[in-house]
Design a protein that fits this description.
The protein is mainly beta. It is built from one helix and 33 strands. Strand 14 and strand 15 form a beta hairpin. The chain starts with a helix and ends with a strand. Bound molecules: 2-acetamido-2-deoxy-beta-D-glucopyranose (4 copies). Its EC number is 3.2.1.55.
Length: 467
């Protein structure tokens, strides 16, 4: 059925108002952020600095960096605040530190091993001093849990006034599995109120490839819910992220309060050349409102030998989008280089990569990298789909667009635009065709992307907000 144009235009205007109110600004980072740093944890502390800590490939120390911006962490000097000891717990592997400020002191949750043994235990350091890079650290020891078994990846959060710890641990009753996720309330930063309860186990096929693993929990509270991401399977290209959700009105110590997503929410992606994404943390961008996903992966799929001996897991950061249903949308690990953005038309809707198979509603199809310079060089830009890097949006036949590879047919000019102030709102942006003056990128009512002239009253179709 064809709706009258008038009704569609009115609907678009309402949508535009709604979308404007919910505008979510674009952010820009260059990936990978930091080479050879796995299990990345970035936090913004009350002194205004961003702090970074992560696992180093030598597994022998805890490092910290700090900077005024997340991108600046890439070149910030690194301070070693703790080194592997001669004997006992702390003489072996040093994995996945996290920095937290609790009641005026600094705490680092870190998994520590014993030299020559496969004996890893979640442990705590306490730091005093205003600056964690120069604080003095004391060991508060291994966190006492239900059992003295393989335990790691502790993280902490406060919900409804109670501070919780979530971590990964091998359950003695499930000896064929590597680790489950456990939760307990904290009595103080290094002491749990036991018993802890398991809220997730590696029971689904995608959690059991190579090893049977649930680990690396990270918690985000938004929209009345707790979103708990975790990582599953072996730490090679099979590594991926899952999601548990609980209502903030529920008893978090009751496993029934947690719902597991039946499919992983972030996996390897051959199109973007990202493999084994996982062990994430969440942080808010410099704008104070945009949620970011921080995680590691590798830039290649195949590894020789034990993945733990391959040093090239690297720290990455990308925007976390939110669906209209209030749930996070993870998309895919984005390609290396500058992070992509969404192009929301002032009249409503997103520019979408459509290769002829039809739009699926999948977030990555709405992500584009605004590449500078564009294929035509100079001041031009080209639009490269986040789901399919290597092709560029180009003028096709008539008003239609197509996607062309750099240098393989189609002219560079047809795939290049000049960035202009938005025709319908100077706060937005319009993209004028390089080779046909007066023709602009448009998102037609109904969602088709076009390049054509813009008549009076149509400016909103050719004006975009980058999100
Ligand atoms: C997982 O468990 C198996 C069997 O106990 C063990 O050989 C392996 O080292 C474990 N892997 C990890 C990553 O914990
Ligand atoms: C939140 O905390 C209050 C006060 O401690 C308590 O009465 C209430 O049961 C808690 N709510 C949940 C869902 O745990
Ligand atoms: C078209 O896009 C869909 C969704 O991204 C993808 O599954 C399919 O492989 C693509 N087809 C081609 C020919 O690129
Ligand atoms: C397009 O290809 C040319 C020649 O290989 C290269 O110099 C240029 O950087 C490419 N542009 C983009 C945007 O990929």
């Amino acid at each position: 059925m064809q709706l009258p144009r008038r009704i569609l235009a009115a609907a678009a205007a309402v949508l535009a108002t709604v979308c404007l109110a919910a505008a979510s600004p674009a952010v820009s980072y260059v990936n990978p952020l930091i080479p050879q740093r796995a299990d990345p944890h970035i936090s913004k502390q009350s002194d205004g600095y961003y702090y970074f800590t992560a696992t180093v490939p030598e597994y022998d120390r805890i490092i910290l960096r700090r900077a005024q911006t997340i991108q600046a962490l890439a070149s910030a000097p690194e301070t070693t605040i703790w080194r592997r000891k001669a004997s006992g717990v702390g003489s072996g592997q040093v994995w996945a530190p996290e920095l937290h400020a609790i009641d005026g002191k600094w705490y680092i949750y870190v998994a520590l091993g014993v030299s020559g043994q496969w004996k890893i235990r979640a442990s705590v350091l306490e730091g005093t001093g205003t600056n964690p890079l120069t604080a003095s650290w004391t060991e508060k020891g291994v966190i006492k849990t239900n059992w003295d078994t393989f335990s790691l990846d502790a993280t902490t959060f406060v919900a409804n006034g109670t501070r919780y710890l979530v971590w990964a641990q091998q359950e003695p009753s499930r000896s064929d599995e590597n680790s489950s996720l456990l939760i307990a309330a904290l009595q103080n930063p290094w002491t749990l109120r036991l018993p802890a309860v398991a809220i997730s186990r590696p029971t689904l096929a995608w959690e059991r490839v190579g090893y049977k693993v649930n680990e690396g929990p990270a918690v985000l509270q938004r929209n009345g819910a707790l979103f708990l991401t975790y990582s599953a399977s072996a730490t090679d290209a099979n590594y991926c992220m899952g999601l548990l959700t609980a209502s903030l009105n529920s008893d978090l110590l009751n496993p029934a309060s947690w719902t597991k997503s039946p499919t992983p929410i972030l996996t390897s992606n051959a199109a973007t050349s990202q493999f084994g994404p996982g062990h994430n943390s969440f942080v808010v961008a410099e704008d104070g409102q945009t949620d970011l996903l921080v995680y590691h992966d590798r830039g290649y799929r195949d590894i020789k030998g034990d993945p733990l001996n391959d040093p090239n897991r690297r720290t990455r950061v990308q925007k976390l989008y939110w669906g209209a249903d209030g749930k996070p949308e993870f998309g895919v690990p984005v390609a290396d280089g500058e992070t992509p953005v969404r192009l929301r038309a002032a009249a409503g809707g997103f520019v979408r990569y459509d290769n002829g198979t039809g739009a699926s509603g999948w977030l990555p199809e709405t992500l584009f990298r605004v590449v500078k310079p564009g294929l035509a060089g100079g001041t031009t830009v080209s639009l490269e789909p986040g789901s399919n890097p290597g092709v560029f949006l180009s003028r096709g036949q008539g008003r239609a667009v197509q996607f062309v590879r750099n240098g393989t047919g189609g002219s560079a000019a047809a795939a290049s635009f000049e960035r202009r102030a938005g025709l319908g709102d100077a706060g937005g942006v319009s993209f004028e065709a390089v080779d046909v003056k007066g023709e602009y990128l448009r998102l037609e009512v109904g969602g088709k992307v076009a390049v054509a002239g813009v008549g009076k009253g149509e400016e909103g179709l050719a004006t975009f907000f980058l999100e």
